[in-house]
Amino acid sequence: MAGSKRDKIKMTPDEVASYLADNFKVQVATIGKDGEPHLVAMFYALLDGKIAFTTYKSSQKVVNLRRNPTMTCLVEDGVEYNELRGVALYGRGLIVEDPGPRSKVGMVVGSRMAGLPVPEIGEPVDPVIAEGIEQALAKRVLIVMEPDRIVSWDHRKV
Fold this sequence. Notes:
With 158 residues, the chain is α+β, with helices and mostly antiparallel strands. Helix content is 33%, strand content 37%. A seven-stranded antiparallel beta sheet has the order 2-1-5-6-7-4-3. It is globular, with a radius of gyration of 17 Å.
């Protein structure tokens, strides 16, 4: 029986893609040096359909990922049980030093953090705002979630 309920609430791949595109906050877990989970909330954008975010080069999650690339991401919402929805992604966090993709994601996330209109990935941003975001990005790297396994649920389906 448990399997059948699980199947009923599972999102389709298109529903997962749409859900991730409609959200912007992710819980990110990496593994600390003593094996404990290191858990933080981050704003993200989708880069080629994958969760991506920038973070300081010296942040604990980057230190953890350099030691062990294992990473889990959780995007979830809902208050009442019958509203709960979420997507958990299990896989690897890739550290990307390339300023091109870092800038694309940084413009989206930086605009959101500054309370400005949020562009789509690759859309132009006001040059003054873009310059400020680029300065902030100089000390950051891009992390891209490469999932091996995705688990989803949408309790509104039952």
